[in-house]
Design goal:
By secondary structure, this protein is an alpha/beta fold. It folds into 2 domains: about 110 residues, Tetrapyrrole methylase, N-terminal domain (Cobalt-precorrin-4 Transmethylase, domain 1), CATH 3.40.1010; about 150 residues, Tetrapyrrole methylase, C-terminal domain (Methyltransferase, Cobalt-precorrin-4 Transmethylase, Domain 2, 2-Layer Sandwich), CATH 3.30.950. Helix content is about 35%, strand content about 20%. The chain is built from 11 helices and 12 strands.
Amino acid sequence: MAGEIVFVGLGLHDEMGISLRGLDEVKSADIVFAELYTSLLPGFSLVRFEKTCGRRINMVSRADLEERNGEVILNSAENHKSVLLVPGDPLIATTHVSLRIEAEKRGIKTRIVHGASVLSAVIGLSGLHNYKFGKSVTIPFPDETPSETPYLVILQNKKLGLHTLCLLDINVENRRFLNIHDALTGLLKVEAERKKSVVTEGTLVVGVARAGSSDPTAKAGFIRELLSYDFQGPPYSLIFPGKLHFMEAEALKVLAGASEELGAVS
């Protein structure tokens, strides 16, 4: 019997984020795997999910997928329908792209059931126009890698009048989540060295927390304001707006609590 791997997105917050099609794929699978390290699902319960789908879920770790190249899933898929549950939208993470490529090389069929993505969710919460975003970037933990690359990406996008989506680093396995205060502080340190006036205390920025949940936070303001703003729990993202359309400026005021001073920035 020919096997396959079906990549199924879990959405952004809890076990209710999976689509009906995705749930159907889980119920009809021979073996179901899940990884929960590439993104944080704050409200996800494995017990509740197994009860909902009526299946046992086999958890795979970062080591299973990256160090051991997903062999446990590939071996299973040689002769069985295997589902891999992934936070957000499948194949956003390069790890899953590598697994799909290897599966196809081995003659294993692959399919995708898409889920909600943080990329579209954060943009949607901000009210900014999605076609005006440039290159996105991840801001790493300050003790691992300097924030110079994100700074340069923001600079490049701003020169083109484009917005920049910054995803803040996470380490789910060790329960570490880069917060907005520390991310902005790191960028301000780079600004102090680069002096390009890209990220100053007077720079407009949008902070977003828990996109996809029932209680997300989206707050627009100047960096000096957001440094002390309480965004509560993770995960976190930042948007550095480029040139604003008048409707985008209005959206930031109405949907993200930006002050009337924004008119001077737009």
